[in-house]
Amino acid sequence: MPTIYYEPSVCNCDGVDYSKADIENAATLALELAKKGRTIGDSKYPHVYNDHKHFDFAHAEAPYLEFPILQKGRTYDGLSPGAERLVIGSIADDFSSAVYCACVTQSGEEKNVFAACKDDSMNPRGKGMLPTEGKSLVGEIEL
């Protein structure tokens, strides 16, 4: 399994949660396909991420790959990609590792335009809500 750096434990795309396992599944399949020079589906995933919103992935180097992300252990099979994508960069020559850039969503956006989803790693201000938001948190712990 490839190593994914800066990987969050969760990302939330406008109310839809994607777990660390969901992120790993999408990244692994994207890297496996790219290593073989293969794509799947009508939109030919994985493909180079066309950054129409000019996201700043300062922690990763181009080229960036885009791949559909699905929930609950499912991986993209070439059919409906859904509204969310995983973006990875700084891809190793042997495809053994990459850097997590973002989960992005087309939900509520113009065609082919993405908004960053919220995560607990690189995109804490994205579109969505993390599990701890809106909850009362412990102010002090006495042991």
From TrEMBL:
Entry-linked InterPro entries: N1-like (IPR000026), Ribonuclease/ribotoxin (IPR016191)
Matching Pfam families: Ribonuclease
Alphabetized SUPFAM superfamilies for the sequence: Microbial ribonucleases
Ranges that cross the membrane: none
One Gene Ontology molecular-function label: ribonuclease T1 activity
Enzyme Commission no: 4.6.1.24
Gene3D superfamilies: Microbial ribonucleases (3.10.450.30)
UniProt catalytic activity: [RNA] containing guanosine + H2O = an [RNA fragment]-3'-guanosine-3'-phosphate + a 5'-hydroxy-ribonucleotide-3'-[RNA fragment]
Top enzyme class: lyase
Annotated keywords: Disulfide bond, Endonuclease, Hydrolase, Lyase, Nuclease
Family: Belongs to the ribonuclease N1/T1 family.
Protein name: ribonuclease T1
Species this chain originates from: Diplodia corticola
Taxonomy of the source species: Eukaryota, Fungi, Dikarya, Ascomycota, Pezizomycotina
